[in-house]
Amino acid sequence: MNYTNMIKVVVSTIICNSLVWYDYVLVGSLTNIIRNLFFPLEDKYSSFILTFSVFAVGFLARPFGAAVFGHIGDKYGRKIALIFSIVLMSISITFMMIIPVYNNIGIYAPILLVICRVIQGIALGGEAGNVAFLIEHSKNGKNNGLLGSYEVLSAVIGSLMAMLVIMITHHFTGNSFVIWGWRIPFFVGLFIGVISVCLRLRNAESPAYCMYKEQKIPLKLPFAVLLKNYKRPFLLAILIDCIENCSFHILMVFFVNFINELSLTRVDHHCINIIASTGIFVCGILTVYFGALSDFVGKKKVMMIASIGLFCVSIPVFWVLSQDSYILIIIGYILFIIPFSAVLGPVNAAMAELFPINIRYTGFGLARNISSAIAGGGAPLICTWLIYITDIKIAPAMYVMFWAIISYIALSVIQKKDIYVD
């Protein structure tokens, strides 16, 4: 594949995957608005727990999406699966633009919100195949770490876009933001969705998959073959991804709510949002750096060191984030982002290389989304619950430390014979 086509594939992937994460993170970033409009309870903690439960429901739908789109991607091609996933996400965005709130239709409002969240989860589950599509453009697997990091970068970009669009919309709509202005970011997402569908339609199939399809007949049931012959790599892929998923959703969703809405500090909300957005931007840059670094020093080594780092900084990070000091909060973000980025950069390639090409879309997608359901989607909910039952501000650190240990152990047992390179 020539350099021009590679750039085209990378840019298309970043834009399309950014949309998926943009829409998905919008719900998390609008937690305070959503809990007031859809769960108007007097008890703040109960309202938050219900809202974060809806956030978690989307993650439970992701493995189903990964199984369905994985079957399509491995049997019929990566391109068609990725087109369908972006169309489905655009549909969910449209629904979020027009969904009535609790005061309009009562209990049906949160039910419709859950349905929207399930559609989002299914679409995001299918979008995981982006990684298989990307690394299959790498020659002999030499740049797998770097290419895999672009998918993560797009998730960071999408998340950052969600935060920035919310801030801009809030600025221009003022008090109307909590009434109707919160819907505008979803309209922006729909516009990006149309562009993304057009880009996906113009993309060619991955060279490695085309070569595979010319030489062999695709499996009839990739999922069955995965469970029958690849149980060990499947389990390892799930476990090494747990610390990434846990940390990602704590950084993207929980930290801002932890500082702003749970009455843990008395700092200005606007300044906290700026700090969070800047931190996520830096995280995106570092992710690509560590992805490229892993191609030289080894993905396993980088991730193991990063897992140790997250274990060590968890308690200090949650302590400084609960202090009434901008400097300490910035330090907390820095302490968390560096080891987190080192996990985030190589993780996609490390997981995808555990599967051969005939089941890669299914294997990676299911592993990523089962890991998300186990350790990621429930992270904001569990962290809120831990603070609620213990009344200890640093209690969520235990959750991060637990998954850091699990992922480290899983990484330590991966051997060279477990790696597949096209």
TrEMBL record:
Main location: membrane
Coiled coil (UniProt feature): none
Pfam families attached to this UniProt entry: Sugar_tr
Domain of life: Bacteria
Key words, A-Z: Cell membrane, Membrane, Symport, Transmembrane, Transmembrane helix, Transport
InterPro entries (alphabetical): H+-coupled_symporters, MFS_dom, MFS_sugar_transport-like, MFS_trans_sf
The Major facilitator superfamily (MFS) profile domain, residue ranges: 9-418
GO cellular component: plasma membrane
Topological relation to the membrane, as annotated: Multi-pass membrane protein
Subcellular location: Cell membrane
TM stretches of this protein: 7-25, 45-69, 81-102, 108-135, 147-168, 180-201, 234-259, 271-290, 302-321, 327-349, 370-388, 394-414
GO-annotated molecular function: symporter activity
Name of this protein: MFS transporter
Native organism: Neoehrlichia mikurensis
Lineage of the species this protein comes from: Bacteria, Pseudomonadati, Pseudomonadota, Alphaproteobacteria, Rickettsiales
